[in-house]
Amino acid sequence: MLKEELKKERKRRLIAFWVSFFLPGVGQLTRKRIGSGLFFILVTVLSLLFLKRIWKGWSPAVISLFIGYSLLWVLNLLDAYKGPVYHKPPCRRACPADIDVPGYTELIRRDRYSEALELIALKAPLPGVLGYVCLAPCEEKCSRTGMEGSVLIRHLKLKAAVKGELTFEVTQQKKHHRVAVIGSGPAGLTAAHYLAEKGYKVTIFERQEKLGGMLRYGIPSYRLPREMLDLEIDRITKDRIEVKTGVKIGEDISYAELEKNFDAVIAAPGDALSRMLNLEGIDLKGVHYALEFLEKANRGEKVPIGEKVVVIGGGNVAVDCAKTSLRLGARSVKMVALETRDLSSPDRLPASDREIEEVEEEGVEILGSLGPRKIVGENGRVKALETIKCTRVYDEKGRFAPQFDDKAETPVIEADSIIIAIGQKPDISFLPEDVRFLKNFKTTRKGLFFVPGSLMVAEAIGRGRKAAEQVDRYFKSPLRRFLDQLFSFELYIKPARLGRPEPADPAAVRKENPEERIKDFRTIEKPLSDEEAKNEARRCLQCPFRFRV
């Protein structure tokens, strides 16, 4: 499997390193890197011959030659161990989690799904979650986009998660340091996973009764099946991480107790609070805030919303609120957003194209370039929403600075319920009041690391992994950190051959019928078939190996 290959690769690199330590360039030859090896051998021989020719005792020139050759000798060692470096392709540069897209795509092409899953998990331990919910910024940058269309990168990841097998081993070499992770969303789970992998004793504290954070209580099951979420959470935590659910920091246990009992703390609360809206009528019955509404729906609680629902907001969370409302029985759902429905405009809706397409397929009407003026009530309940024309969302510098036209005629929209979905923020009330947030997830509090929330699951996973790396560095000496960096390497999955790129259309994404899927919370998208996945993997241009640096 891939982990065994990683061990073998490290051994081969160490052999090349020590051979080149004594015989510069020969280590490269053991790795069949003829050009690089011959270069260092030739330079070494010529340097020795030149030194012999000019040697008349120590002099500034001889000392300069020794210094120059010493630097070249060090470069020879680095080259022997590191090997060739390939540029990051556009898809990987766009991935917030830094996943090796061409690598796992090539493994899928070879029907090696489990190894593809392992390769993804080197950077992201929740591959199935990403396969379902990632916004796939990688696909926007795919080199195939300018041809017939992007490779379906997200769907390939999902196929690997569905068909492959993956197990996280329990690390035998345990460290004595204890780390607390507050929050079990994608960032918290990821940070806990990588710290456990390094041998730290990790405990997750979660205020809800189940792990998952926004993955479980914020994302509806039609986007992320709970079976996949439970599978991946269990894989991360089983026999590796201590879990304490139903524990709210600041109430059930103080932060001071955490500091006393743990050597480091990672706070990854996620953006779990809805942003408030100061609007006339906001306290009327029938007004809901997005995250609270989604949490109740995801728990299976009955949420009385009536037949007519208006969602204020234009992001992916607003789209989820609109879709969920339909599945809870609403007959008419409208989205009111400051941004325009014109997706080519700088003021376009912030929701992804895929989400906008799906919500409109299901019959939701998007009313762009409108803002809420006031909520009209009757007998203490919501009756309608008065709107106002939005003429601009962002200023010349790209800052959020909406402008409105009071005189323009705008609709008054009847509503039984109004859902406010204008953004989220983290709950950091449990942290000490004097704490300040620094770069690289550090804070002014010793041993405390803070992971900002993100609306992109891939970005949250990337941040969780980097926070875990910072905690690991926190416990190591500068010399150990330097050596770790020096002897790190990338395992490249090289294609057998690179033929001429042939035109090939992307596979058709299969979805449940809109009229049927709104009746319940069934998963909307279906995974690719084996043949579709293999054909899609063949479409990858393997950019790193076409453009080598």
DSSP, total strands: 16
Q: For this structure, what is the CATH homologous superfamily of the largest domain?
A: FAD/NAD(P)-binding domain
The CATH topology of the largest domain turns out to be FAD/NAD(P)-binding domain
Overall form:
globular
Report strand order across the widest sheet.
Answer: 3-2-1-4-16
Summarize the structure in words.
With 549 residues, the protein is of the alpha/beta class. The protein folds into 4 domains: 2-82, no CATH class; 90-166 and 491-546, Orthogonal Bundle (Fumarate Reductase Iron-sulfur Protein, Chain B, domain 2); 178-272 and 434-486, FAD/NAD(P)-binding domain, CATH 3.50.50; 274-425, FAD/NAD(P)-binding domain (3-Layer(bba) Sandwich), CATH 3.50.50.60. It contains 22 helices and 16 strands. Helix 8 (127-133) crosses helix 10 (153-163). The longest helix has 23 residues, at 60-82. The protein starts with a helix and ends with a helix. The model has no long low-confidence stretch (mean pLDDT 92).
How do you describe this structure in short?
The chain has 4 domains: 2-82, no CATH class; 90-166 and 491-546, Fumarate Reductase Iron-sulfur Protein, Chain B, domain 2, CATH 1.10.1060; 178-272 and 434-486, FAD/NAD(P)-binding domain, CATH 3.50.50; 274-425, FAD/NAD(P)-binding domain (3-Layer(bba) Sandwich). The two termini are 28 Å apart.
What's the structural blueprint in terms of helices and strands?
Layout: H1 2-22, H2 26-30, H3 34-54, H4 60-82, H5 90-94, H6 101-109, H7 113-121, H8 127-133, H9 137-141, H10 153-163, E1 178-182, H11 186-197, E2 201-206, H12 214-217, H13 226-237, E3 242-245, H14 255-261, E4 264-267, E5 273-274, E6 287-289, H15 290-299, E7 308-312, H16 316-327, E8 332-336, H17 353-361, E9 365-367, E10 370-378, E11 381-394, E12 400-405, E13 412-414, E14 417-420, E15 424-425, E16 448-450, H18 457-474, H19 478-486, H20 514-517, H21 530-538, H22 543-546
Helix pairs in contact: 1-4, 3-4, 6-7, 6-10, 6-21, 7-10, 8-10, 11-18, 15-16
